[in-house]
Amino acid sequence: MNLLTTRIDLDAIAYNTRLLKNRVGAAKLMAVVKADGYNHGMDRVAPVMAANGADAFGVATIAEALAMRATGITTPILCWIWSPEQDWAAAVEAGIDLAVISPRHAQVLVDAPPTSRTIRVSVKVDTALHRSGVDEQDWDAVFTLLRDCGPIEVTGLFTHLSCADEPDNPETDHQAETFRRAIDRARALGLEVPENHLCNSPATLTRPDLHMDMVRPGVALYGLEPIPGLDHGLRPAMTWAGAITVVKPIRKGEGTSYGLTWCAETDGFVAVVPAGYADGVPRAAQDHLRVHINGHDYPQVGRVCMDQFVIFLGDNPHGVAAGDEAIIFGGPGMSATELADALGTINYEIICRPTGRTVRHYTGEGK
């Protein structure tokens, strides 16, 4: 028995992939599996996504891209965070598409010695996020440079939306207008750019007019709603749970955990969950976490420690005992979104938190 587990429902991954694929019609679906599949295990979720409609995959780093290829994935993979000082040629040899995110990145690829494979690139243009991406004043130079280099194939352009999780924010339309201008300019300079994409999860779900040639969802594939207050019928795939290690009595007025920052208002019982900030439970979760055990919820109390936290059972009317499963989030417990709201963050961060001694366990067949 593992003391701390994330259960990943592969059938939920399959369902979410199909749901998104059905929504986008003729557009291709690029499934984003960076950060080890949003902490769900890229090697297990990517094949499920491929079997249920994913046409391509997106990752952040070259290491992630190469790890995907090593699992046997043969579909296109786009890597968008890399440095010219890295062995990017190894990615090219593995059939990885590279993002051109600055004039420097373009120049390095153009100046490269011959490779046995065509260098496939997608140009990321900055449309006002002001993060990585080619600025508008550099579009002509980069497009022309790549056009005139025979070993390089430009598959398309892409960009990243800043406010798509706010459906009424006009910035999405402004960015889309800039992106269309970039596509028009690339084609005017002789690039075909056949596959262009800007839709992240929220835009994939709410802006069919922006689906273009491809969409690029991430968190929605894992079943989390990307737009506060809406429900698109996604199925969360992750449940994080620990096995209760200790149940013991506490008297009125007695405290628990470091600093004795919480004291019992009545006689009762406390229980220990073997998860702490070394495992991804933030110390700031104190008094915000509600744990689910055998159909009932219990509050977390006292300081979150490195390896464990404490919950209060009251007089323990439901007989919680050592070995019982305590759900930290997911399933019948707090959702990742509810926990995120309680902690003042976003559900993206919550599903990336289970680390440390947490062991993944997979359920379902991905069908």
UniProtKB/TrEMBL annotation:
Domain of life per record: Bacteria
Stretches assigned to the Alanine racemase C-terminal domain: 237-363
InterPro entries in the record: Ala_racemase (IPR000821), Ala_racemase/Decarboxylase_C (IPR009006), Ala_racemase_C (IPR011079), Ala_racemase_N (IPR001608), PLP-binding_barrel (IPR029066)
Residue sites binding substrate per the record: 131, 306
GO biological process, one term: peptidoglycan biosynthetic process
Keyword check for Cell inner membrane: no
GO cellular component: cytosol
Enzyme class: isomerase
Key words of the record: Isomerase, Pyridoxal phosphate
Pathway the protein contributes to: Amino-acid biosynthesis; D-alanine biosynthesis; D-alanine from L-alanine: step 1/1
Keyword Isomerase among UniProt keywords: yes
Chain positions found as N6-(pyridoxal phosphate)lysine: 34
UniProt cofactor(s): pyridoxal 5'-phosphate
Function: Catalyzes the interconversion of L-alanine and D-alanine. May also act on other amino acids.
Family note: Belongs to the alanine racemase family.
Entries under HAMAP family matching the protein: Ala_racemase
Record-given protein name: Alanine racemase
